[in-house]
Amino acid sequence: MYNLFHLLEQESLQGLFDWAGFDESVKAVQADDARNSEFQGAWAAKPLAESALFAAPAQVWPELRMTYRMDFRAMVYGPMPPDDDVIIMLERVSQRLQVLSA
Which residues contact 86 (CB under 8 A, 6 or more apart)? Predict the structure, then answer.
């Protein structure tokens, strides 16, 4: 979430979700993951939009918040985005993944 948040803040990536190759690129990554034995399981065959994190970001965030703010915080040097901004970013990703899954 930290990396995704900061990547999506970059001016050069502002149009990422509108990029014509976005869907194809995501599907290529999913296909590569499917070939990787480390990424096996029923969850791997489901659409990304169905993951708990992207299906209901505002409901899942409270469960992740303390780990993100405490344990993960100790591993990064940059600023941590405010919770509301993280939820907005996750909802933005969720909306785009919903389109991908349609």
Answer: 1, 5, 61, 68
